[in-house]
Design goal:
35% of the residues lie in helices and 19% in strands. The protein is of the alpha+beta class. It folds into 2 domains: 34 residues; 270 residues, Aminohydrolase, N-terminal nucleophile (Ntn) domain (Glutamine Phosphoribosylpyrophosphate, subunit 1, domain 1, 4-Layer Sandwich). The longest helix is centred in the first third of the chain and has 24 residues. The protein is globular and about 65 Å long.
């Protein structure tokens, strides 16, 4: 058994050295760049095609950077890990069929939503607000999908704070450009978030709301991502890119919503002067305006949500 283990270990080391040599020659890596921080990476298909190989490569790479994140005393709860992928249309069309609807030919939009797990009433309030704000914009909702999860993959603390995880699937008119659609969905998301807060529900979070991409993340270890989210193992789950992240929290405690990637970034490191940056943003808000938001500028304020980590605050600003 020991002999076999040694052979496997030597094979891994040789494979790692070969990979490092290729990266060094390409100028993408140097040993002196090694430091203690989050692990982050990116995979993409060179020709832009959506395929399963990209997803598999990203999952393998994410699981290989488990050492870049902190681990709780229970040995299974992590600071957070996740993966950001393009929306696999055929995968979701299959699940839309289960709601009794068929593809209407529009742009498929999916929202990955964390709901309060232990309060059924609050869950319904949140769903109603999400549906109301989407329908107000004349968009068609296919329905909700409860995301399959395997809670046995989680540690005790991750289980205790686990949200209810659901996806809202809806359609956006094809004639809208991608830029217009994503801006529109950003405003809708901000309206939803403000309306939910007005109902005094604080444990609600939208991981992603887009026609382009979707985020699967949580307060687990990097190697647990597919164990917890079996969706990611489905052969129909394809993508042309993947951003993956293993968190090592610095200026905030780990929570489900602060796991990365975020909607527009996956950050490795720590942003300094975080309080000063947040205060400056607040000071500028009363002068913020832009014609591209067509009178909806107040709906996106405050730009920085309370309790955000440095990366979450920057992500909200970039959104």
């Amino acid at each position: 058994m020991t002999e076999q283990h040694n052979v496997t270990e030597q094979h891994y080391i040789a494979k790692r050295r070969m990979a490092e040599d290729r990266l060094i020659k390409a100028g993408a890596y140097a040993p002196e760049w090694e430091h203690d921080a989050c692990g982050v990476g990116f995979v993409a298909s060179m020709d832009g095609s959506h395929n399963r190989a990209v997803v598999n490569a990203a999952i393998e790479a994410l699981q290989a950077i488990w050492h870049r994140g902190a681990v709780d005393a229970d040995g299974m709860t992590g600071d957070g890990a996740g993966i950001h992928l393009s929306i696999p249309r055929e995968f979701f069309i299959k699940h839309i069929a289960r709601t009794g609807h068929t593809d209407d030919g529009g742009r498929l939009a999916v929202g990955m939503v964390f709901l309060p797990r232990d309060d059924i009433g609050a869950q319904e309030v949140c769903r109603s607000i999400v549906e109301r704000e989407i329908l107000k914009e004349g968009l068609f909702i296919y329905g909700w999908r409860q995301v399959p999860v395997n809670t046995s993959a989680l540690g005790q603390k991750a289980k205790a704070t686990r949200p209810e995880i659901e996806q809202v699937m809806f359609s956006v008119p094809q004639e809208m450009s991608e830029v217009e659609v994503e801006r529109h969905l950003y405003i809708i998301r901000r309206r939803i978030e403000k309306a939910v807060l007005a109902e005094l529900v604080t444990d609600f979070y939208i991981c992603s709301l887009s026609t382009r991409s979707i985020i699967y993340k949580g307060m687990f270890l990097a190697e647990q991502v597919t164990a917890f989210y079996p969706d990611l193992l489905d052969e129909l789950f394809i993508s042309n890119f993947a951003v993956y992240h293993q968190r090592y929290s610095t200026n905030t405690f780990p929570t489900w919503r602060l796991a990365q990637p975020f909607r527009v970034l996956a950050h490795n490191g720590e942003i300094n002067t975080i309080r000063g940056n947040q205060n400056w943003m607040s000071c500028h808000e009363d002068r913020m305006d832009s014609p591209i938001f067509e009178g909806a500028i107040e709906d996106i304020k405050p730009v920085i949500a309370k309790g955000s980590s440095d990366s979450a605050a920057l992500m909200q600003y970039l959104s």
